[in-house]
Write a structure and sequence with these properties.
The chain is an alpha/beta fold. It contains 17 helices and 13 strands. Strands 3-2-1-4-5-6-7 form a 7-stranded parallel beta sheet, sandwiched between helices.
């Protein structure tokens, strides 16, 4: 039975780990693959969700070797995390003798590349984002700062080396695939597969919403029967354009007095309220909710539309927003902007929303008018589109195919 070490800098107790790592690996165990997960966990989330995640993984015989993530001091804490990951990966490999290391981008890819060079282990380079460029585009690394300029160059060099030494590559979008194939370090004989972020279609099913749970959430959030809910799902800040989304909602609110903006976000609530204040929106128009994963489908079900604006930059051509598949699976039309991965093509292909050519007041007004004029979007067509493009089963099949090509 092939044994794979999966390395993630996101925790398995984080939403991303629960939606974009664990379901894939559970699916792949059914094809005879054995996994050990090495992840960096945030202490607060780990204390809350450790037992839940541990039981889930044990039920599929997946081993889990968590270490703690460090945030402070900047840079030095990350260096220490890399040291921790390498030390733990070495210990695990000595004991388990892995057949392959499968890594997410950035820090995990550094460790995967190190294991490939040190032990000759097969290396699946899962390029789920253009990591170094995304840190610059998101304002996390300032390229004018001497230290961050050096860090950027270091990661670009390592990303190039990882592509050169990969035994297989995964990316999330066809836009990214086109770019990767133009890189001089990419070798044509190395398998390269596009696997978008997937969605658990059974969990995100509008027909399976628990009415008691929905009623409870409705009362908690003071959502009225005639409220016109626009939702946003996911993280706040960096590439996610909160100010622009709020400006857009202000225009909607001017046309539809019953409109309210529901943010289903794990953090950043203060940022949301500040953006609302800058846009001249009253506090009672904004609803904030930090939700568990099993609450998200019920919360989304209140939505007439769901909006996400993401900075249209180079690195985001590699992005497949998890939120997009989950929203489509619920049959909810999206309002989004062009220039992010394959999103615009997907929305247009499956008639599943409105794509803004640019983030301008003119485009906001056009979209708001479409909404106000009660445009009709077929929820069944939208959900069918999610099945076709974002299905977890499809993603597992594609991972099985590339695993087979690398290790059999």
């Amino acid at each position: 039975m092939p044994h794979i070490l999966f390395i993630s800098y996101d925790g398995m107790t984080d939403p991303l780990g629960q939606s974009q790592v664990i379901p894939y690996l559970i699916g792949l165990t059914k094809y005879g693959y054995q996994f050990t997960i090495l992840s960096c966990e945030k202490k607060e989330r780990y204390s809350l969700y450790k037992n839940e995640v541990d039981n889930l993984l044990k039920s599929s015989s997946i081993k889990w070797s968590p270490i703690f993530y460090h945030k402070k001091p900047p840079i030095l804490s990350t260096v220490y995390d890399v040291y921790q990951l390498k030390k733990k990966a070495k210990q695990l490999h000595t004991k388990e003798k892995f057949d392959m290391v499968h890594t997410r981008p950035g820090i995990p890819a550094l460790v995967g590349l190190w294991m490939k060079k040190r032990s000759g282990i097969k290396f699946l380079n899962d390029i789920r984002e253009f990591y170094a460029d995304s840190r610059v585009d998101g304002g996390i690394w300032n390229p004018k700062n001497f230290i961050y300029k050096k860090i950027y160059r270091f990661f670009k060099e390592k990303e190039n080396e990882a592509v050169e030494k990969s035994d297989g590559i995964v990316c999330l979008t066809y836009a990214a695939e086109k770019i990767i194939k133009q890189w001089p370090q990419y070798k044509k004989h190395v398998p390269l597969m596009v696997i978008p972020c997937s969605v658990d279609m059974a969990l995100f099913d509008p027909e399976e919403i628990n009415p008691i749970q929905k009623s409870k959430l409705k009362n908690e959030l003071n959502i009225q029967e005639d409220d016109f809910i626009i939702s946003y799902l996911g993280s706040i800040g960096s590439w996610y354009l909160t100010n622009e989304m709020m400006q857009f909602f202000k225009i909607i609110n001017d046309k539809i007095p019953a409109a309210k903006f529901l943010f289903i976000s794990p953090s950043g609530h203060e940022t949301v309220m500040q953006a609302a204040q800058r846009s001249g929106l009253p506090i009672n128009k904004i609803i904030l909710k930090q939700a568990s994963r099993n609450e998200i489908p019920a919360l989304l079900s209140f939505s007439r539309y769901s909006v996400f604006f993401i900075k249209p930059c180079y690195s985001k051509q590699s992005s497949s927003p998890t939120k997009h598949g989950e929203i489509m699976a619920m049959g909810i039309p999206v309002i989004t902007n062009d220039g992010v991965g394959d999103v615009a093509n997907i929305v247009e292909k499956y008639q599943s929303g409105i794509v803004l050519k640019e983030l301008s007041e003119k485009e906001f007004d056009v979209a708001a008018n479409i909404i106000n004029e009660k445009a009709i979007f077929d929820k069944h067509i939208i959900r069918d589109g999610a099945f076709a493009y974002y299905s977890l089963d499809n993603a597992i099949e594609k991972y099985k195919e590339i695993y087979k090509r690398i290790i059999g």
